Amino acid sequence: MPSRRVLITGLSTYWGGRLAEALEGSDELETIIGVDSRDPTRELERTEFVRVGTQHSLLRRIVEAAEIDTVVDTRLIVDSVATSAARAHENNVIGTMNILAACGGPNSSVRKLVFKSSAHYYGCHQDDPAFFTEDMERPHPPRTPLERDILEAEAAVADFAEKNPDVSVTILRFANVLGSSVKTSHTALFDLPAVPMVLGFDPRYQFVHEDDVVGALEHVLNQSLPGVFNVAADGVLALTEVIDLLGKRIAPVLPPWGTGLAAAALRRAGVVISPEMLTQLRFGRGLDNRLLKATGFRYRYTTRETVLKLAEHMRLAPILRGAAAPYRYEREVEEFLRRSPNVRRSGRRPPERADGHGVLPERTGEAHAADRGDGSAELGGASAGYEDLEAGELAVLLGSLETDDLIALREHERTAHRRPDVLAAIDDALGRAEPAGPDEP
Amino acid sequence: MPTAGRSTLDADAAAATEAAGAGDPSRGEEAPAREPSSPASTAVARRGPDLRRHLPGLETDRRLTDWGRSERVEGLVDRTLVDFLYRYWFRCEVEGIENVPATGGALLVSNHAGALPPDAAMVAKALREEHPYARPLNIKVEHFFKGYPGLSMLLPKLGCVAAHPANVHRLLYDEEALVLVFPEGQKGTRKLYKDRYRLRRFGRGGFVASAVRAGVPIVPVCVMGAEEAAPIFAHLRLLERLTGLLYFPLTPTFPDFGLTRMAGYLPAKFRIRFLEPIELDISPDDRGAVHTAAESVRARIQENLFEMVGERDSIWLG
After folding, report:
1. For the residues B127-154, what does the mean pLDDT come to?
2. What is the chain A residue with the closest CA to B160?
3. pLDDT tens digit string along A126-148?
4. Cα torsion A113, A119, A125, A130: sign
5. Which of A372, A412, B143, B154 has the highest local Cβ count within 10 Å?
6. Which domain holds residue A380?
């Protein structure tokens, strides 16, 4: 069952935004709704943003009203440097439980749940296997609050999957993410002129490129793949190899004994090393990524290429600093851009997307029909509200459409409904539009 | 509804797999069967054979493998120290190298001895020197070394892999490599000189289960000479606890000549004998059968060792 109506939680996280952006290009999806407690950080065209926390009663109402069939949870905090432990717990554990509560229930419309988790699930220990497979549990209980939270959240999701057998639940465990636009405690570390290491240890590291993270989320959305999947690029590098590729120097400043104390001293000096990273710097971690590859997913970058990409970005960063102004969300402006009939949308959009997708978010009932009436209705409506329109109503609208859109509409009509009078009307309109077409000298 | 849903999901997944060129529809049937909550009862992942083709490809620009093995470091140590020991110090003699298969995985099982055991390096060197395909050997070492500074950095670069059942399975089954295990573990290396050539217990037979699960033969290996090259006369418990090492032995050169002299081997004559491969047809979960098989492997190594020691005229000249 392909997804049609998607709800993304954590729209304002980097991943939520990237995913929504990627999904907007998909023809299959009718609706993309994003929720978060903060403003979106990326410019989105047809994704509807609703500001809610993670209170489940509100989410439940959105899920029910919009008949959401797929929920993608990208909201998990996997870097303990990013926020306080208490807030991470609130978000990771309580938030997950609320979202699950909003998705579950006997008459819920949700059929698919994608949960973004982390390889911190496995932890880093002395007696780890060299490659974790999905069916392994971590050998020791979690040591840090963040790891505890991730385990607890995953347990809640697994429990949900058991109680809702007709919902396809996918958990993706991502390795450490690297990329030009994502800031993690690892990129902060690699930004230093010399990278601190634990003396006498050369841990094995595996990364995943930010594009592959979005690709993997999209991949599991387009297919039905219940279960747990590791997402990590091919190849496991030694940390010295990583540092070498980045063109940095090695600084084995952390002593093998009393590492925590030395890390605390480093924190004073401004180098923050999270407790998860301390164990990773000592023991490293490798993931077996073959299960996801076997479902047809192809990684764009290997771990080595991911690191090389980061090196490229780090060389460019001083030149590009401040060049691109960050996107600022202004509710009124967004509303205007999405709803106002005066916005010329076909001009704004990239040409490859001009064939099938409206800028307008899909709505049902009267609101939809009202949009049709204002003359700016586009083919995005073809997927949902188009069928409701009579041939006569359509004929009125045809005059306001561009030639490209008319051609696309004719295709849609021919394959979907084959109403002869509508087809004739479209041909008519095309005939009228042709003389003024681009053939003119 | 759920069953109908499942079958279409299968079709979807299979179609997607085929479209993407992975081309294995059976994968699609397997994927939905995996429950996220499935508890991992065994440490070794039991997966379909099709996952082997998804192993990451070789990156030619890299100097390390995914296991952390470094051809450069290994080659350097091999050309200098190991080569000297193999040729001139221990004067290794090798028998039955043809018993090591030329292709496919195989589990080499050996006796283990010596304060800082030289046997693993010598077996690996014997394979490189004498075997027509010069196959690389992965040596299974205790998890302890991964947590010990310095050694944790060095050992993986030399081809040592932590003794996790999943690691052994991946090497034997997925990568079809050679793995050398010492089932005696540190019980073998810490035994005193008076107990020489008397094999300790072979663990709980985990190595047999690994080989059976991966469907590879077991090649027993007998190493003679390591006992005399680095004999242990006594253990110093207090220093053992202070240094956090596995054991702190009293050997002819250690600790009186300093830490580095732990590798000060006596020039005993080495003989390495590879025995005929054993193919086992038992269930890896049948504890009794696994234990019996482990005992029979141990008995064969012990017999051959006694035979080799009996034929020997001199410890130093062979």
Report:
1. 91
2. A130
3. 989 999 999 988 888 998 999 99
4. positive
5. A372
6. 355-435
Same domain, A79 and A210: yes
C-alpha distances (whole Å) from A412 to each of A177, A382, A405, A415, A418 are 41, 8, 10, 5, 9
Sign of the alpha-carbon dihedral angle for A39, A40, A42, A47? negative
Question: Which whole number is the average pLDDT over A242-257?
Answer: 92
Q: Which chain A residue shows the shortest CA-CA distance from B244?
A: A257
> Please, which residues have CB within 8 angstroms of residue A310's CB and are 6 or more apart in sequence?
A178, A179, A180, A187, A190, A246
What domains does chain B contain, in order, with CATH numbers?
Answer: 71-311 (3.40.1130)
Same domain? For A208 and A104 the reply is yes
CA distance B139 to B221: 13
Nearest CA in chain A to B10: A224
Q: How far apart are CA B231 and CA B224, in angstroms?
A: 13
Question: In the structure encoding, which two tokens stand for residue A391, read together?
Answer: 């041939």
Backbone dihedral region of B203: left (phi > 0), alpha (psi from -120 to 50 degrees) or beta? left
Look at residues A320, A344, A372 and tell me which one is the last residue of a structural domain: A320
Which residues from B are below 8 Å from A173, CB to CB?
Answer: none
CA gap A67, A45 in Å, rounded: 21
- Going by the DSSP 8-state scheme, the letter that residue B276 receives in this structure is P
Closest CA–CA distance from residue A221 to any residue of chain B (Å):
12
The answer to whether B47 contacts A291, with C-beta atoms less than 8 Å apart, is: yes
Element (H, E) at B168: helix B165-169
Query: What's the pLDDT score for residue B12?
Result: 41
Q: How far apart are CA B190 and CA B115, in angstroms?
A: 7
Mean pLDDT value across residues B69-78: 92
Q: Min CA distance, B269 vs chain A (Å)?
A: 34
Over residues A312-334, the mean pLDDT reads: 77
Task: Give B58 to chain A, closest Cα distance, Å.
Answer: 9
B5: contact with A, CB 8 A cutoff = yes
For the record, the structure tokens of A21 come out as: 């952006």
How does B296-318 read in b/e, with b if 16+ C-beta sit within 10 Å? ebbebbbebbeebbeeeeebeeb
The minimal CB distance from B31 to the residues A2, A169, A227 is found for A227
Nearest to A172 by CA among A92, A261, A289: A289
Is some CB atom of chain A closer than 8 A to the CB atom of B206?
no
Whether A254 is in a domain gets the answer yes
Closest CB from A126, A166, A223 relative to B12? A223
Helix, strand or coil, per DSSP, at residue A411: helix
Tokens (6 digits) for A88: 């991470």
Region of poorest pLDDT, from A51-60, A422-431, B52-61, B190-199: A422-431
What does the alpha-carbon distance between residue B267 and residue B90 come to, in Å, rounded to a whole number?
A: 6
Q: Residue A202 pLDDT > 60, yes or no?
A: yes
Interface size between A and B, measured as CB pairs under 8 A? 174
Label residue A136 exposed, middle or buried (CB < 10 Å: 0-12, 13-18, 19+). Answer: buried
Give contacts of B 126-145 with A, CB under 8 A: 143-144
* Predicted ipTM of the assembly: 0.79
